[in-house]
User: Fold this.
Amino acid sequence: MTSHFSFQVEHVDASSHARLGKFTTPHGVVDTPAFMPVGTQGTVKGVDAGRLRETGAQMILANTYHLALRPGEQTVAALGGLHAFMNWDGPILTDSGGFQVFSLAERATIDETGVRFRSHIDGALVELTPERSVAIQEQLGSDVAMVFDHVVALPNEPAVVADAMRRSLRWAERCKTAATRIDQAQFAIVHGGLDAALRAESADRLVALDFVGYAIGGLSVGEPPSAMYAALDVTTPLLPSDRPRYLMGVGRPIDLLEGIRRGVDLFDCVMPTRNGRNALAFTDAGPVRLRNLQHALDRLPLDESCPCPACRHSRGYLRHLFQANEMLGPMLVSVHNITYYQRLLAEARLAIAENRLSALIDQRRKGWERDEGTNVE
Amino acid sequence: MTSHFSFQVEHVDASSHARLGKFTTPHGVVDTPAFMPVGTQGTVKGVDAGRLRETGAQMILANTYHLALRPGEQTVAALGGLHAFMNWDGPILTDSGGFQVFSLAERATIDETGVRFRSHIDGALVELTPERSVAIQEQLGSDVAMVFDHVVALPNEPAVVADAMRRSLRWAERCKTAATRIDQAQFAIVHGGLDAALRAESADRLVALDFVGYAIGGLSVGEPPSAMYAALDVTTPLLPSDRPRYLMGVGRPIDLLEGIRRGVDLFDCVMPTRNGRNALAFTDAGPVRLRNLQHALDRLPLDESCPCPACRHSRGYLRHLFQANEMLGPMLVSVHNITYYQRLLAEARLAIAENRLSALIDQRRKGWERDEGTNVE
Assistant:
């Protein structure tokens, strides 16, 4: 690693592969395992920077694809870079755009050079290559840049998965060559779908290139959770133990704990905010669907022990906000859900330190299995 | 006044009728002149209770009409009353519903008993009478309840304005008779349009009934600002100097200062939040339209001296949020605008204490006259 970055594993859970660590970046230290809230367009939807800090989040994610299309990386740079732009002085990771091309771009054509696609905003023709993704991320000024990768859906033809994995390897090498900022780390992305041999080939080749961190990509793209866990089982042991491991785009609370159990250090997902906007709140007793009639007269908060602004109100009030289409509903439940994820990760870190992660997972899983179902007025 | 309420005028500006006062309520003291942000449906749109406190707001407004329709005053009462519901422990004033019937209700029919109308939400038939408005406001548990009044548009036939004013007088008397809570004050509402004689008749009759406070209603309903100021000129001198005076639904920053100059103590208006949602920010140098192209690369905040969360960001960032349809844009500019109004009122209070309100008004008016116009990308 360059002198700007370091990663220390401070303890490994006695009963699992879970690690307690510290990831040091130019914008501060991240206690791992960590969950990064997603600020796609340079804002975590519905949460201002101050409230975001109060959730306990230390590191956040922003998107190369979205910011390059709007307002453009030159504009972000002219406005002082991503940290000043977002008023976030902690570490920021930028996704490379690979996943967004896969999920959002219209009429994308992929060849060895890169990807040409139509912007989902205005239909403009855009080209993204490994070199261009690196250049954009350097303009944005994130602490961690992801290599540009070729993401495919699962299930898929073995040859398609293998081709995309090998193209991602060649693109990772091009990204490494293109990088110029010593204050920005690059994370590689292991691909290979659910195929253990392809995952091994990808991991081995990327490890040989010596990246600051390693992501596990191409999961949570249509496969069942058990398949994702199995892919993690075969992938994380192949990654160097002295580098941070990042499971991209995952996931539900249980997925985070199952990832942590398998040695993952970093996560990101839109679930806390996307669900929050749709009136679904995470709690230890399972998801609460705030539009349900049963909450109309409920004076209790979502969680009496939660310090977030939503939990200063009754469930009945939160329900009213959604029924009345008030933006405060999405705002409050988004910040609650991010707080929930941050507190869960803090619990996991404590459990690792005390060698009882498996017990925590069993306990939480039991609570989450409850589900009130849907009973809307 | 009952023992729960008191109003002290501490100083009157040497060059105008502006008063510096303290209005004491069961939920705390309000420094007047004061601006009350509007929490129509039990939330100031886009601003959580903590952020709202940080703007300097001491007292807020909620709406009888909206809350009675949704979630219903019984639900608010079951959830602990309006203060607990909104998590606002400061004073709250509730509008009586008179203005909303005038502006929102469909197919309203008015007679001496009250108003029957169709809910703007679901078309349900609803009846609002003076007694019912009082009962709803008592269930909501606001500190200040407004009498139920008959609002008419301006300009209008003299006979229509006179009839509505006299009906409002009879309804005010019925409201006074119906009130039962000693921890809730009732404010009367002076009507009479732009007619000095009608205003005088309304004020005299209401003063004889001895209310805790007096509102000036039926303004900002279509007439030019100069006509509104003229109506204030003839009305405020008729109100007892030892009772708070409240100019309802007003207005622009200059309207607040012109009202203060004429001896008004309380204001409310949706302008800060409604404009904030539409990317218009108030500053001492006039309104800033954040969608304008000229702000795209502007690294300066709206106001370097402003402590609000929006002013931790560049104008370029705020513009990006609106261009990208991010809810953080409306959130940040709403809280900025409320902060702007609160700081303006604090400046006005200081200027009154120092006998220089007129100088402040001249200075501010000069700044506000600048307007960048509209120049959207």
